[in-house]
Amino acid sequence: MPQASSPIGVFDSGVGGLSVLRALLAAMPHERFVYLADSANAPYGERGDAFVAARTHAITEYLREQHHIKALVVACNTATAAAIHEVRSSHPELPLVGLEPAIKPALAVTKTGHVGVIGTRGTLTSAKFGKLMASLADQAHFVVQPCDGLAHAIERSVALPVADQGSPVHATETGALCARYVQAMGSFGTAPGQMDTLVLGCTHYIFVAHELRALVGPGVQFIETGEPVARQTRRLLETAGLKAAPDGAVATDAPRTRLLTTGPVAMLQAAAERWLGLPADCCETVSVP
C-alpha cells in the first residue's frame, strides 16, 4: 500500500504537463513526483476517445505497479475528458485529480462577459466539456477555438536551441498557429463586446504565453489550471492522510522528481531543463504497453 513517502504520479500525452508539475513542485516542496510523458503517442487531442482511454488506463496501472504512486494527477485535459470517470471507478482508493478548461475561474474575473477558450479538438468536442459549457452558457459569451496542431508544434519547438526561439522556424511552428487561431476568434481587449479573458485549455499553451500575449494585448487575462490543480491535490492528500512529512522527500534515497517518457528522451530532457531547471539525468525512456 502507498505510504506518505510514496511519490505522486503525474502524466500527460507529452511535455505540456510539465506546466502542472511546475505548480505541484512549488506548492508541495516536501513531496516526491514521477512524471510520465506518453510522447510516443502524442498529441492525445488529435486521437480518438477509445485510444486515449486505453492509454490512460495503461499508464495508471504502470505508475501504480512500477512506482507505487499514492495519488495521480491526470495533467491532460483530453485524457481527463475521455477517461477520468472510468479510472476513478477502476481505482476508487486512489486520490485522483483531473483537468478541465478553467471556465469557472474565468467567469470570476471577466469584466466584459466575453471569454475566449482555446484547447485541443479532443477536449473541446468532448461530452464532458459540452456539459460544462451547457451549465454555464447563460453566464457569459464564450468563443471556443480548437487549435489543431498547436500542442504538437510546442512539443517540436522544445528541440530548438534557446537562441533560436525567435527564429522564423519557431515562428512558423508556434507563432503562426497562435496567430491563426487568435485571429479566428475575434476581438480581444477590455472594451465592451471584446474578450478580456482567455482560457488556456491545454497544458502546453502556457509555454507560448508570450506569443499569445503579443497577439491579444496586455489587458487580457490568461487562465490556466496548474495552481488550482496543485491546491486540489494537496487537499486530497491531507484528507487521505498521505501528505509527506516536511523531511519526507529527504528521508528516502529516491530522487525527488523522476521524469519518464515513452518517446525520445532528448525532448523531455530539453523541456525539463528549459521549463523546470531540472538536470538531464532525472529523465529516462520507458515502455508502457
TrEMBL record:
Protein's pathway: Cell wall biogenesis; peptidoglycan biosynthesis
Source taxon at top rank: Bacteria
Gene3D superfamilies: 3.40.50.1860
Entries under SUPFAM superfamilies matching the protein: Aspartate/glutamate racemase (SSF53681)
One Pfam family here: Asp_Glu_race
EC nos: 5.1.1.3
UniProt keywords, alphabetically: Cell shape, Cell wall biogenesis/degradation, Isomerase, Peptidoglycan synthesis
InterPro entries, sorted: Asp/Glu/hydantoin_racemase, Asp/Glu_race, Asp/Glu_racemase_AS_1, Glu_race
Any one GO MF annotation of this record: glutamate racemase activity
NCBIfam families in the record: glut_race (TIGR00067)
Record-given protein name: Glutamate racemase
Organism: Acidovorax facilis
Biological classification of the source: Bacteria, Pseudomonadati, Pseudomonadota, Betaproteobacteria, Burkholderiales
